[in-house]
Specification:
- There is one protein chain.
- By secondary structure, the protein is an alpha+beta fold.
- The chain has one helix spanning 2-16, and strands at 38-39, 61-64, 67-71, 74-78, 81-84, 91-93, 96-98, 101-103, 106-108.
- Strand 3 (67-71) and strand 4 (74-78) form a beta hairpin.
- The longest helix has 15 residues, at 2-16.
- It is elongated, with a radius of gyration of 27 Å.
- The protein starts with a helix and ends with a strand.
- The mean pLDDT is 76.
Amino acid sequence: MKTKLIALLLLGSASMFAAHFSFGVNLGYPVYYEPAPVAVYAPPPAPPVSYYRPPCPGPDYGWVSGYWYPSGPRYAWRAGYWSRRPYARSYWVAPRYHRGYYYSGYWRR
């Protein structure tokens, strides 16, 4: 009886300090979801008539056109820029304003 009690106490105290290990393996492509919309109260202003577009820095870059984005109670202009594509044959989906919501831009296959 005494041996069983000691074994039970040792087992219980050992489980208090047991570590939990886990690992995961991703065998597919990363999943990119469309960003959630942001509620805004007015559509953005019209984009500037023209702006400078520098030459492409390399073959794996894509042009992200300039756009207005909500910044607190106002809109701020983000000038266009070259960005490295996150994966081959991807393209930039521009941000948009639709029915009182602002949808951020994102890369898509």
